Structures are given as C-alpha cells and as structure tokens.
Amino acid sequence: MLIAQTILIDEAEIEERFIRASGPGGQHVNKTESAVQLRFDLAANTTLPDAAKRRLVRLAGSRMTKDGSLVLKADSHRERERNRSDARDRLRKLIEQALIAPKPRKKARPSLASIKRVKAAKAQKSQVKSRRRKPGSED
Q1: Residue 93, phi-psi category: left (phi > 0), alpha (psi -120 to 50), beta (remainder)
Q2: Is the terminal CB of the chain with fewer CB neighbours within 10 Å at N or C?
C-alpha cells in the first residue's frame, strides 16, 4: 500500500479479518461477515521513520495493542469491500498524519509597547479604585 511517494507499506504487515458487523442489515447481518478488523504491525515495520512511529502511537491511542499493532475496525457499510477500503483509507490517513512533523514552538515575548500599555492600564485602574475610598482613610 503506497502512503507517500517514498513510503510503501508491505501487504504482509497488514492483516485483515472479517467479522460480523453490528450495524444495519436486518436478518442478513447475522449470517455475513462484512465488518473488517485491520491489524497493522507497527513494531515490525521498517519503512516508517522512528519519529513517525512515535507520533502514530500517540495518534492511535487506545487502538494500539501492547505488542505494537494498530487495530482498526470498519463496519459502517453493508458491503465487505467498502468496509475494507474504509479501513485502509483510515490507516493511510493516520500514517500520513503521523508523517507530518509538528512545527517547533517559538518562544514569544511581548513587545515593549504592549508592556507599557499593560502597565499604564494597571496604573489607571489603580487610580480609579483609590478614588473610591472614603476621604481620610489611610492604610
């Protein structure tokens, strides 16, 4: 499965099991196995960079197993092939999202003018509050 121009996921790393779906389908749903449980062995993968693997683990959350596999379940469609392509698309999107490195945070510092404005506003507020006191009451 081709993810990006440089990354190709081997089909041997993807395991698909077909299970009975719990969604719509009437009596037919009890007889057919149209839902797909896709299992991607991330621990055995060698094509993804280590940083992308770490981001993928964080993105997957509870869908990651202890042995390093990503498990996706697709059962929103009645047809097996549509569920299969849905699961593969979701895997592709997750991996593409993990490949994007976050931008490094730049420390922001308020400008000198904004600091002066804040201090001036604070002094003004202090003056307004001090005028509310009764005359002659010193602390």
Answers
A1: alpha
A2: C
Position 89, amino acid: D
Contact 87, 74 (CB under 8 A): yes
State the average pLDDT for the chain: 85
Q: Each residue of 46-81: pLDDT tens digit? A: 888 889 889 999 998 888 889 888 899 888 887 888
At position 97, the amino acid (one-letter code) is Q
Task: Tell whether pTM > 0.70.
Answer: no
- Residue pair 48/95 in contact (Cβ under 8 Å)? The answer is yes
Residue 19, classed as helix, strand or coil, is strand
- Count other C-beta atoms under 10 Å from residue 52's C-beta: 21
Distance CA 43, CA 48 (A): 10
Length of the chain in residues, anyone?
139
Angle of helix 50-60 relative to helix 80-99, nearest 10 degrees, comes to 120
